[in-house]
What does this fold into?
Amino acid sequence: MIEFSIKEILGLIAVILAILAFIPYTISIFKRQTTPHIFSYIIWGVTMSIAFVAQIINDGGAGSWTIGVGAIYCSAIAILAIKYGEKNITKKDWLFLFMALLIIPIWITTENDLLAIILASLLDVIGFLPTFRKTYIKPYSENLTAYILAGTSYFISLFALAEFSYTTSIYPLTLLIISALFVGMSLWRRRFIPKPVTR
It folds into this structure.
């Protein structure tokens, strides 16, 4: 009989919540209710992959599982965004993408996991800016249930970390905070802009 530790159980719960967040989000993309910003998802795919590797190296254990799942999902959404995503790409969006991709050579050169996590967290926030900008203008263009479930997943993953340190905890904590701010901003904007009528 397979026995799980409390941290592994929490890690599994976090992964399940992450998957539950991804399913309605993906469905809403195909229904054309959600228009993901391709640059945000490319950046998140990169930063989540780096954070996942750094967490594993630093004994993140079950608490790192949800970040690994997120890295795969964000990369998949970036591919979907080619067809279904936001088409209004600005010069600032290109700048954000360039800044995010710079983290890879910096990490390889310094071989410093904590620096990589700090940069990944900062660039994840930067990666959110195109989506913030888009959603501020079109507050119904994102599935907020997915962000709420994902934020809850990041919260639980913190308690599932085998080794709680700056290197393992900064990134999921950043995701939790930025997700909460994003949901709050979107709900606030929806108070002033009526929902578009779909035909």
